[in-house]
């Protein structure tokens, strides 16, 4: 009987926490939209100025080298670890006036634009179909985390009570929404890479 009550209480807490997380995302939508606009603008820059960004090839080679020889399960964990760190650091380190989330959005956007420009002549429109399956989960997770990081940083201009509220709401949203999205994205991306290799 006690076990059932405990399980019911846990279910209620999870539902409550998830509801609070989605409410906080809605409350933070302007920050999230700002991050999306920065990301899109930098993606366009990366695409059209790719000739000036050839140093990115070395960065991509280093990333590829780390994944050589990994099986599908190892790939999934590698992708999840990278995305998890990026999202968490973008959120928590946003406390420094929201600078890191902006830098993160800029660099990731430029990187995506560069990759699209390089791969489009070879793969054509199919490059989008390679990105979409996991991108529909990964990008929202990253945008939300960076948007909340930006909001957290700008919370320094508010009361300590408001900053504390933003911090704990951000962590709750990270656990309830961002982490599940990243897990799904990593599984899909890992499987797709495994199938194409």
Helix content: over 70%
Task: List the total number of helices.
Answer: 7
Distance between the termini: 52 Å
Give the count of structural domains: 1
Shape annotation: globular
Topology:
Elements: H1 2-27, H2 29-48, H3 56-67, H4 72-92, H5 99-123, H6 126-154, H7 160-196
Helix pairs in contact: 1-7, 2-5, 2-6, 4-6, 4-7, 5-6, 6-7
Describe the overall structure.
With 197 residues, this protein is mainly alpha-helical. The protein has one domain (30-59, 71-196). It has seven helices and no strands. Helix 6 (126-154) packs antiparallel against helix 7 (160-196). The termini are far apart.
Give a brief outline of the structure.
With 197 residues, the chain is mainly α.
State the main characteristics.
single chain; 197 residues; mainly alpha; globular
């Amino acid at each position: 009987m006690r076990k059932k009550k405990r399980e019911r209480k846990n279910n209620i807490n999870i539902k409550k926490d998830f509801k609070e997380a989605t409410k906080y995302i809605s409350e933070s939508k302007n920050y999230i939209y700002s991050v999306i606009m920065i990301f899109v603008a930098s993606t366009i820059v990366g695409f059209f100025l790719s000739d000036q960004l050839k140093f990115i090839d070395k960065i991509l080679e280093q990333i590829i080298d780390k994944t050589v020889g990994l099986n599908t399960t190892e790939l999934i964990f590698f992708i999840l670890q990278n995305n998890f760190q990026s999202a968490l650091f973008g959120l928590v380190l946003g406390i420094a006036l929201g600078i890191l989330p902006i830098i993160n959005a800029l660099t990731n956007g430029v990187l995506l634009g560069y990759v699209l420009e390089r791969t489009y002549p070879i793969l054509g429109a199919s490059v989008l179909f390679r990105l979409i399956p996991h991108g529909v989960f990964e990008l929202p997770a990253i945008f939300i985390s960076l948007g909340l990081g930006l909001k957290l940083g700008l919370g320094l201009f508010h009361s300590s009570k408001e900053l504390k509220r933003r911090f704990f709401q951000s962590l709750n949203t990270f656990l309830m929404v961002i982490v599940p999205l990243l897990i799904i994205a990593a599984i899909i991306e890992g499987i797709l890479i495994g199938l194409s290799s």
